[in-house]
Amino acid sequence: MGFFSKVFSNNRHKSARAANVRRTPPTEEKVAATLQENISYVHQALFHTEDLVNRSIPCFEKQAYLLYLNSVCDSDKIHQLILKPLLQAQDANPDRDLTAASVEKHTDLEKAIDLMIRGYAVLFLEGSEDCYAVQVNQINNRAVNEPANEKAIQGAHDGFIESMQVNLQLVRKQINSRNLVVRKYSLGKMTKTDATIVYLNDLANPELVEEIDRKITAIDADNVMNGLLVLEYIENQSFSPFPQILQSERPDRVAANLLEGRVALLMEGTPAALIMPVSFFTFYQSPDDYNSRSLAGSFIRLLRLFSFFIAIALPSYYIAVVSFHYEVIPMELFYQIKGSVEKIPYPPILEALFMELTIELLREAGMRLPAPIGQSIGIVGGLVIGDAVVRVGLVSYPMITVVALTAIASFVVPSHEMSYSVRLLRFPVMIAASLLGFLGICIGFALILIHLCKLESFGSPYFAPASPMRLRDWKDSFVRLPFWKLNERPIDPNPQQLVQEKRSKGGTGDDRG
């Protein structure tokens, strides 16, 4: 591992040095008093792109030009916010007549060009060393609908979209507090994607906020187009099978995590927020747990946690039993399994790998194809192929049952990132079971447990509140107790205020905290 780390580190350093040699940041260029000189500079800076529009404005005593990129600007906004106010004024004055929501006055041409790329129209006047940038960008947003990946039976049914401003509005709609702070960033040397971190100033740990700020500002890349790229730059251990940052498309889920002292990252073009820090049990929580009664929510959450062990251990348990520990099978079931397994010409590990890889192929095919065809693929794969491989003698009936239960258990996980982790982890545990039987399964789970206890998410213990043990936080981890019992925030994000406002049961004034 040291050799590969050294090789990869050298390549990264060489790439960084090469990037510094190839590209230097543009220096400040003052707006010239000559109009043609400014127009010529803008054309050269944009490499004479053909979507750059030069439009003369005749309402000024001296010559004036409006420059903008018609591919990102809205012509109606240009007419309503710039041309109409200036043409209707008797003595046109940009400082007085440009009344758009976003008007910026600059003396730096490079800054004006950067704004032009983002959807601003820039007004240049002959003899003036200032330019005026007006935001007239096109807005093509889809409707705010419930996310397909995080559907809830009860509760809110709105979700994030690709517009960061709309997503911020949805978050502020959930939390009407002056303590909600937004920090803005521009990521990617070439993409320059807008990003923000959102947190509650009176709850989020200042050290956590500064660590996230340091990691985001340290990103040195040309292409940072979405939040999924940022995720790998800022998480603690990218090679861990477990995700250390939660992705959510639900504003109510993001707001609930902010109220626990966590931080959310929103990016332009990404219909999801990155929530940090998180624990292992955060990925098994769902908004439905809090929109239903505590007993029902606790039962469903325990069922999800149990599915983690089923999805990883069931195939390996079957392999270990058939290969080494057949004495644990009840005698009534032993002969039926024996009659089905003895016809298979290869060991159970190959049988299990064949079926698991087939299921993964069918799952990927169903996701990539259009919805009607994807459903047909699932039916064909589940019925026709499953029955055919058993009749041919490639797979036994018990293995079909085991693989089907394993696939169902992996679907129970409410987070896609954790679902992928479970699907990956079962393969090494299956190999360990084929080599050492039950001992291999124990070793595999012991290694997983050790890794979970060592793993951290932005300095917070990943396996909290199980390790380190804190029984108070079990009220909303393994189960979900009634709300009047949840009078403390989880300790893993280390919030500034641990004790929440005490809730009384039934409004009787009987504090149960």
Annotation keywords:
513 residues; alpha+beta; 3 domains; 5-stranded antiparallel beta sheet; 17 helices
The description of the largest β-sheet is: 5 strands, antiparallel
Q: How many structural domains does the protein architecture include?
A: 3
The helix-strand sequence is HHEEHHEHEEHEEHHEHEEHHHHHHHHEE
Question: Given the C-alpha coordinates, what overall shape results?
Answer: elongated
- Helical fraction: 40-55%
Termini separation comes to 50 Å
- Estimated structural class: alpha+beta
The total of helices stands at 17
Low-confidence stretches: 10-24, 503-513
Average of per-residue pLDDT values: 84
Rg estimate, integer Å: 29 Å
Number of strands: 12
Strand order of the largest sheet: 1-2-4-5-3
Beta-strand share of residues? 5-15%
Would you write up a description of this structure?
The chain is α+β, with helices and mostly antiparallel strands and 513 residues long. The protein has three domains: 35-135, no CATH class; 164-278, no CATH class; 290-461, no CATH class. It has 17 helices and twelve strands. The protein has helices at 2-22, 35-45, 75-88, 94-97, 109-117, 164-174, 206-217, 227-234, 251-258, 287-291, 294-323, 331-341, 348-368, 371-392, 397-411, 416-436, 438-454, and strands at 52-56, 64-69, 103-106, 120-125, 131-135, 180-187, 193-200, 246-248, 263-267, 273-276, 456-457, 460-461. The strands form three sheets. Strands 1-2-4-5-3 form a five-stranded antiparallel beta sheet, with helices on both faces. The model is unreliable at 10-24 and 503-513 (pLDDT under 50).
